[in-house]
Amino acid sequence: MQWECFHHSPRSNWAYAYDKDTIHLRVQTKRDDVEEVTAVTGDKYDWEGCHEDVPMEKIAYDHFFDYWEAAVKPKYKRFSYGFRMRAGDETVFMTESGIGPDQPEPPGGYYEFPYIHEIDIFTAPEWAKEAVFYQIMPDRFEIGDPSISPDGVCDWGGEPTRESFFGGDLQGILERLDHLTDLGVTAVYLTPIFEAPSNHKYDTVNYMKVDPHFGDTAMLKKLVRECHDRGIRVVLDAVFNHTSEQFPPFQDVLRKGEQSKYANWFHIREFPPEVRDGVPTYDTFGFYGNMPKLNTANPEVKAYLLDVAATWIREADIDGWRLDVANEIDHHFWRDFRKTVKELKPDAYIIGEVWSESRPWLLGDQFDSVMNYPFADKVLGFFAEDAFDGRAFAEQMNNLLMRYPQQTNEVIFNLLSSHDTPRVLTRVGEDKRRLKLAVVYLLTYIGTPCIFYGDEVGLKGGGDPDCRQCMEWEEERQDRDLHDFYKLLIDLRKSHPVLRSGRFRFLKADGGDSRVIYERLGEGEHFIIWMNNTPEETHMEHPLETDDWEDALTGERVPVEEGVQTIKLDPYGYRIMMRKL
Length: 581
What we know:
The structure is a single chain. The protein is an alpha/beta fold. Helix content is 24%, strand content 26%. It has four domains: 3-120, Immunoglobulin-like, CATH 2.60.40.10; 130-241 and 298-495, TIM Barrel (Alpha-Beta Barrel); 242-295, Oligo-1,6-glucosidase, domain 2; 500-580, Golgi alpha-mannosidase II (Immunoglobulin-like). Helix 7 (299-316) packs parallel to helix 8, helix 9 runs antiparallel to helix 10 (390-401) and helix 13 packs parallel to helix 14. The two termini are 37 Å apart.
C-alpha cells in the first residue's frame, strides 16, 4: 500500500459532527490500492468498554484517490480513533502519531473528537434542503407598473446591453407568481433591488431604499407576503463589497478628501481619489472606478451594513441573503453578519458568491452555502462540451463532493446558468437533448438547485449582457415542451426525499465512454439514473439484485433478468428508475 497517499485531518471536512449524535469520519487512500478500511474507535477514558470497529465504505474516488467514510455514534459524544487499512495480507494502522504495521496501544496518540457540542454543529436551514430556487433579475422579468419605469426604457424583448433598461419591477414579479407556482419552484433569489443607477443594481446608492423604478418598501413587503402565502421563500442580494460612486459617503470623500469623516470607509491608496490611466487610486470591484470598495473592517461600516441586513429581515420578512463578491470581504465581517442574521431569523439562508473552493466560508460560522459554479463548469463540460469522458466526469464530481461535509453538500447552491454566465441552452449548442440531460442531473443531484429565469421556456444568450434577456411571456414563443419537462422534473424532486438528501454515488463511469449511471439511496427509496451522453442509440446493462424497479416518470415496470437490468437509451437519452425499500 502507498502510505504516502493516506490522508486524514481531524476536526475538518474529514471528521465532523453531522448531528448531535453522529460523527462522520473520512480517510483518503491511493486509487484502487486499499481493499478495506476500518475505523478503530473507543472512549479515551474507557477504551475497552466502548471499543468498536466500524467498517468504512468507499463512497467516492477521483483520478488519484479513493475516499472512505463511516458514521460513528459514540456512547458519550466523544471518542478517540484510528484507521486500519488492509490490502491482501498487508495491514497497517494510521493514527495521529503516524503509520505503521503494528497497532499502537490506544488511546495514546490516536486522533480525537473531544466532544459533540451542539452549538458547534454546522446546521443549514431545513427548508433549503427541500427548496428549488428560481433566480430573477427584476428589470428583465415583467413590467407591472409602467409609470415607474426609467426614462428611455427599451422595447420589451430587445437586445440587452450594459446600459439598457426594460422596465421590469416588483409588481411585475407579483403578477407572475402563478408561473412560479405552476412550475413548482419554492424559493426565489432576486438580484439587487435597492436604489442604484444601473439596470443590474450591483452599484448601490441607498441600501435602505427599494429602487423607485422597481417599487417601494410596501411593494416589497406585499411581494414577500404573497410569496409566503404560496410556500415560496424570498432571498435578496446584498452588495457589501462595494458601492456606487454615487453612494453619499463616497461623494463626501470626493468633495473633502482626507478630511471627510468617511475617508476610512473605503480603501483609498492615494488622495485625491480619482482614476488615472484607467486605474483608480482607491480599491474597487475589479478596476471599475464607479464601484469603490467598502472597508468592512471599519466599525462604522460594519455597523451600517449589519443594520442593512437586519432591517430588511425585520421590515420585509425576507428569508435570507445572497452575498455578492463575498470572497473579497473579511471573515470577521461575515462572522458578525451571520450572528446578526441568525439572531433575527434562525432559519435564514445565507449564500455567498464564491466561484472556487469555499471551505473557509463553510465552517458553520459564516455562510450556509455558496453559488456552486464549479458544479456548473463540470456538468456543462460533460453534457455540453464533451470535455471529458464518464470516468473523468465522475472523478471531478466526486472531488467536489469530498470538499465539504455532507450537511453542506445537502444545501450547496447548484446552478447551470445565471446572470453572470451564458444561458444553459446556448452552452449546449441549442441541443435540447443535451440540455435535458444537464437538467436531469441538476434535479437528481445532491444540493439545492436553482433555475435562471427563462431557462425553462428556452431563453438563449451568451455572456453578460446577452444572458440577461427579457423574459418571454407569449406562450406561442415559449418552448412549452421544455417548460413541461422542467415542471415534471421539479415535481419528481419534490415528491421524493431521497433526491434531496439521499446518498449520491456513481455506479458506472468508464474511461472512453460518455454513458454514466448513478444512484440516490436513502430511507425508503432507491433511485438509479441512466444517461447516454452520446449521439448514438445504446443499450446499457447494470447488475441489480431485485426485480421491483419502475420508471419514476411513467410508472412502467422495468424487469431485471438473471440479475441484470438492460436499458435502451436514445441518443442523449436518459431513464430514471426507482423502487421502494
